[in-house]
Amino acid sequence: MIQRSGSSNACGLNPARAQSNAPARNSLAHNSTRVLPIPPPSNPLTRPPRIAHHGQTMDSSDFSLLVALDALLQEGSVTQAARRLGLSTPATSHALARIRDRLNDPILVRSGRGMLLTPRAETLKDRVHAIVTEARQTLEPERPFLPAELSRTFIVHATDYVLAIVGSTLDRILRQEAPRACIRFVPNAPDDSIALRDGGSDLAIGIYGELPQEMRARQLLTDRFVCALRKGHPSGGKPLTLEEFVTLPHIQVAPRGKPGGYIDDVLRENGFTRTVARAVPYFVTALQLVAETDYVLTISERIATKYAKTLGLELVEAPIPLRPYALSLLWHPRVDGDAGNRFLRDVFLRAAIEVAGNRHKTPRTRLDASDPTSGQTRKRPRRVTR
Fold this sequence. Notes:
The chain has 13 helices and twelve strands. It is an alpha/beta fold. The chain is elongated and about 80 Å long.
């Protein structure tokens, strides 16, 4: 053990001792085997941050670190990330230590029995996942897409209106071109775009409020409103007056479970209100109910025409001007390049052209902020009484 005494230079060595040791250093210089000091082990959380220089090239192991980082961020657990990566837990812990050292951030911190992402990790999560996904897709050989080989289940948000209008045609095309493809239809919700973004669903069809800017949309079909009454209704057999319209009890189709919306807003703007006696989530159910009662139903013309004869309905013009509307096919840009999703979008568009090719002029393409199903929080217009 070397003990220091007397004055020292900037390196912490006694000048005299350094001079006396000079011969020993010279003899070591001629020794073929040089002994290097072993640095003490360092904690990745306490070691100094790595300095990144502009234009620094990536190490060969950097992509492996990105893959490990993506698994850690997505799973929020070293154990689960290890399973996802096919590595041992110690190996994944070692990778986490290297990542912490590289980013100068803990990335995961313990909270009770689990772990939480740090704020820095939260900001990196989507970006790293996108980089790793794109890199993997880049390295994968692209195979020609064959619809007949498509064996996959798609989740699509849609109402029973969509199924009634384009469902059978869509089914025929899929049976002919992609017989192994499956579709699971689920109800619409104000947050369909979130499910599309998070991968919980593949497509959505409907009319929505304000959507995230990155969402993709394509107009599928248009329709307009008519009023449906049962044959023999006291107000039937002639044009329906506005006074009758606001006096009669109404059935409303509320696919997302919230009554109110465009028709009520138009009435309110003109100083009127109506009584919604029944609000149901399904178009066909509403048509069946109005066929057996003295209610009035304001509904989309295409589906009303489809069932009018079977159910014994009379269709008349609404006594107030109502704009037509457009249903849009919605998807997230993350599946823009997905051949299966692109094929299904094309099938929906072809089916819609075949059965509803005629388009209405200047349709509404977005729900107003006052619509309770738009997902927006703006205040409804103040009611005007007359």
